[in-house]
Specification:
Length: 230
């Protein structure tokens, strides 16, 4: 907060506000901090207020011990302006994780001083960072899956629950590749089936008892004639 006995203190940022275009009352604006008070604190914030309309350009002084992050959230603001000067006192309700902010013990976060349209009114404020606004817009207009398979759409769950995935090679094929024996269970196919029944060595061949002679009745006649010396 700017202190009267410390005139050498420089402002921490600059804010601009204009009438809120979507409502008959209130303002919308933003603040840029060249000294946000912390390396991790945001340099830009966006502010919306519900109160008497108006416009102004003010330098911003963070309260002692406060950073720009302390100004984010729900709060209240009081503005008194007669063109020059225009003075604003801003306070933020502590965020305790509830749906509605507590209406007691708001903490003063910043003081603004500059020029503005004639105004004298309190207002309720909402301050957000650009990242918070982007997340809100994405959640409202283009919601995305939250990560676990239960949060995905039915179509995505159907695809990911199968053995394969579109666009990615399967880690192991659902059916193993056939080896040479499985591909040719009949001994190499119909073309070379004789090789599977032909002996590989002459001594292993089976000798015919007739040695090439005809069988049946003709064979018996030939045997009888040979025995009698014909």
């Amino acid at each position: 907060m700017a202190e009267s006995h410390n005139p050498d203190r420089w402002p921490d940022g600059l804010s601009f506000s204009a009438p809120f275009p979507l409502l008959p009352i209130g303002r919308i604006g933003g603040t840029y901090y060249w000294n946000p008070g912390s390396a991790t604190a945001p340099r830009w914030t966006v502010n919306r207020s519900l109160g008497a309309p108006g416009a102004g350009l003010e330098t911003v002084f963070l309260a002692p011990g406060m950073t720009s992050r302390d100004t984010v959230g729900f709060g209240v603001s009081g503005n008194a302006s007669t063109f020059v000067p225009s003075v604003s006192l801003n306070a933020t309700f502590p965020d305790r994780g509830g749906l509605l902010p507590p209406l007691a013990a708001p903490k003063v976060t910043s003081v603004g001083a500059g020029v503005g349209t004639p105004n004298m009114s309190p207002s309720f404020t909402t301050t957000m960072t650009p990242e918070q606004i982007a997340d809100w817009l994405q959640m409202f207009f283009a919601p995305r899956a939250m990560g676990p398979i239960d949060e995905a759409s039915p179509f995505v769950r159907t695809l990911t629950s199968r053995h394969g995935a579109i666009g990615a090679a399967a880690a192991a094929p659902p059916v193993g590749y056939l080896n040479s024996g499985d591909r040719n269970p009949l001994g190499g196919g119909m073309d070379d089936w004789r090789a599977s029944v032909t002996p590989s060595a002459p001594q292993e061949s089976v000798q015919s008892p007739f040695d090439g002679r005809p069988g049946g009745l003709l064979g018996l006649i030939q045997d009888a004639m040979r025995d009698r010396g014909y």
